[in-house]
Design goal:
about 250 residues; alpha+beta; Glutaredoxin; Glutathione S-transferase Yfyf (Class Pi), Chain A, domain 2; 4-stranded mixed beta sheet; binds glutathione
Length: about 250
């Protein structure tokens, strides 16, 4: 099998491409990351891969399939390559199978965009301390975490699990739905600088669930690699800056 190509931004900070990489790694599929500068994603040839000019995109040379939108790519990978249903359920568990889609859509339409807006107004927006926006997206982040936390608690009660047993969003195993939340969760530490969020205390189920997702060897490997990419990119930026100052 030829490696599947995943397009990603050079510093690796954006969470969405890593959702795809995690699923590839969890399924043990060969892949290459194609690093494309952000300055090149809004124009051709990249927009032929992704008309939205964002990351990720995926090219599967084995099936001549090119896709964009991380959720669609995850669906494709699972439908095409997860015959053993390692990360999904089959028609014999019809409701569970489709509930995974509910959670994936929720990740795509709620966790990603709202965490993203909170990050934007907290860290990047040109007008600093735009408090109404910071508050609105802060409240949304917490509301979304509350939805997940509540659902995990219900699962725990439904399955009769003890407080320290592992619980997943749907059914009795970790699926692509759980994995899809992991990269955006890495931002939780920076979304509320100066306090304002104590995940362990406010959302204990969420806290335990995220710990269980991120300690899976394949997922951990990808998230550690992402950290390494970010560190390396920052070092290279510092190096470029220092050579500029030296001149
Ligand atoms: N819904 C899209 C969101 C894609 C997205 O916003 N990607 C970010 C990186 S995480 C990006 O390309 N940012 C660069 C930009 O907006 O120009 C997906 O999940 O694929």
């Amino acid at each position: 099998m030829q490696p599947i190509q995943v397009y990603n931004g050079p510093h690796g900070q954006g969470p969405n491409p890593w959702k795809v990489v995690i699923v590839l790694e969890e399924l043990g599929l060969p892949y290459d990351i194609v690093w494309i500068p952000y300055g090149e994603i809004k124009s051709e040839p990249y927009t032929s891969l992704n008309p939205n000019g964002r990351l990720p995109s995926m090219v599967d040379p084995n099936k001549s399939v090119t896709l964009w939108e991380s959720g669609a790519i995850i669906n494709y990978l699972v439908a095409t390559y997860d015959g053993e249903r390692r990360l999904t359920y089959g028609d014999d568990r019809l409701e569970d199978k489709w509930l995974l889609q509910s959670w994936l859509m929720f990740q795509m339409s709620a966790q990603g965009p709202m965490f993203g807006q909170k990050m934007w107004f907290t860290q990047l927006h040109v007008e600093q301390n735009l408090q109404t926006a910071i508050d609105r997206y802060g409240a949304e982040v917490k509301r979304i975490m509350g939805v997940v936390d509540g659902a995990l608690g219900k699962q725990r009660r439904k399955l009769g699990l003890a407080a320290d047993d592992v619980v997943w969003l749907v059914g009795d195993k970790c699926t692509y739905a759980d994995l899809a939340f992991a990269p955006w969760n890495t931002l939780l530490g920076t979304l509320f600088p100066g306090g304002g969020l104590d995940v362990r205390k406010e959302f204990p189920e969420y806290h335990r669930w995220n710990a269980n997702v991120t300690k899976r060897p394949a997922t951990r490997k990808v998230l550690e690699f992402r950290e390494e990419c970010i560190r390396l990119a920052l070092l290279m930026e510092l190096y470029r800056y220092s050579s500029y100052v030296d001149r």
